[in-house]
TrEMBL record:
It is found in: Cytoplasm. This is ATP-dependent 6-phosphofructokinase. The gene is pfkA. Its main location: cytoplasm. Pathway: Carbohydrate degradation; glycolysis; D-glyceraldehyde 3-phosphate and glycerone phosphate from D-glucose: step 3/4.
Length: 327
């Protein structure tokens, strides 16, 4: 029989739509197994400052459809220190919390891995990040909503671009990865997509604009914020110099990509993984992230989960597809 009686749950790092659905599933899953569950506010910051609140079925009522996280989230430098983690451990012991579910991305799991090794403390991670950059799950919670938010926004931009015969450069999130740009770019029928993983340069763009179809009323270029061209404004400036007669506009989508109601896909994924995390802890699993691969629940060691998998998702085949469709 498992010794776990009180599970602590926190959200950490960048917020992602579906985090609330995940919290709800962890709480309801814990209650189903007659466990106590404690909400920890502002990620590891709340762990270090003992900012805890007991949770019951009611405390997660009516949140499955809400973006953001009711537990708040934070980036916490103190958790990177031995002293900070010692305080966190003492607070867990003092409050009778004997296992943790952490919802976040690679940084959150790196911290969880270090902590659980130092104190042999049971921790399971839930992949909550819009980046979809974790190994051990086909999708992370929040990614589906984020790319749909981008698609909805760019569809609106396309309407105005088409009406005015404009070229729009749209910047989307992705400091280290062009995954959001590539998938949403294909989804909106972008004329070009600039991502850090591909070698397309602004000169390539110029060539394409000069030699592309002349009958296109509008053009949309999707740029990942981490592209080496330096973001949408830089690309815009270069293109404006080359094509002074073109009506060129720039739009940076920014934080709207993190917000909003989670898609049904994200709600269902978060719900399934949240309950699986509780069950995993009760089965004695720890230092692992729970994910879904080919419809199956899979537990992956933190150290493996945090290895970025962009290489598998941004293949030459995907880049070729985007190019074929932009003709
Ligand atoms: P996202 O992918 O949305 O950015 P994330 O979980 O990767 O989410 P980070 O800000 O990288 O977000 O990490 C969240 C928190 O995890 C950090 O603020 C810090 O408290 C903790 N953390 C990250 N790296 C370490 C580390 N090496 N040691 C201890 N704690 C860490």
């Amino acid at each position: 029989m498992s010794k776990i009686q009180n599970i602590g749950v926190l959200t950490s790092g960048g917020d992602a739509p579906g985090m609330n659905a995940a919290i709800r599933a962890v709480v309801r899953g814990s209650l189903y197994y007659k466990l106590k569950v404690t909400g920890i506010l502002r990620g590891y910051d709340g762990l270090i400052n003992a900012d805890f609140m007991p949770m019951d079925g009611k405390s997660v009522a009516n949140i499955i459809q809400r973006g953001g996280t009711i537990l708040k989230t934070a980036r916490c430098d103190d958790f990177r220190t031995v002293e900070g983690r010692a305080k966190a451990y003492q607070n867990l012991v003092d409050n009778g919390i004997d296992a943790l579910v952490v919802i976040g991305g690679d940084g959150t799991f790196t911290g969880a891995d270090i902590f659980s090794q130092e104190y042999d403390f049971p921790i399971i991670g839930l992949p909550g990040t819009i980046d979809n950059d974790l190994e051990g799950t086909d999708l992370t919670i929040g990614y589906d909503t984020a790319i749909n938010t981008v698609v909805n926004a760019v569809d609106k931009i396309r309407d105005t671009a088409e009406s005015h015969d404009r070229l729009f450069i749209v910047e989307v999130m992705g400091r280290d990865s062009g995954l959001i740009a590539l998938r949403s770019g294909i989804g909106v029928g972008a004329e070009a997509i600039l991502i850090p993983e591909a070698k397309t340069t602004v000169s390539d763009l110029v060539y394409r604009i000069e030699h592309g179809r002349k009958d296109k009323a509008s053009k949309i270029i999707v740029v990942a914020e981490g592209d080496e061209a330096g973001g949408a404004y830089n690309v815009g400036e270069t293109l404006k110099k080359k094509f002074p007669h073109h009506d060129i506009r720039v739009s940076v989508l920014g934080h709207i990509q993190r917000g909003g109601k989670p898609s049904c896909m994200d709600r269902v994924l978060a719900s399934r993984l949240g309950v699986a995390a509780v069950e995993g802890l009760l089965e004695g699993k720890s230092k692992v992230m729970v994910g879904q691969i080919n419809k199956e629940i899979v537990f992956t060691p933190f150290a493996k989960a945090i290895k970025h998998i962009d290489a598998a998702q941004i293949t030459p085949g995907w880049l070729r597809l985007a190019e074929i469709l932009s003709l």
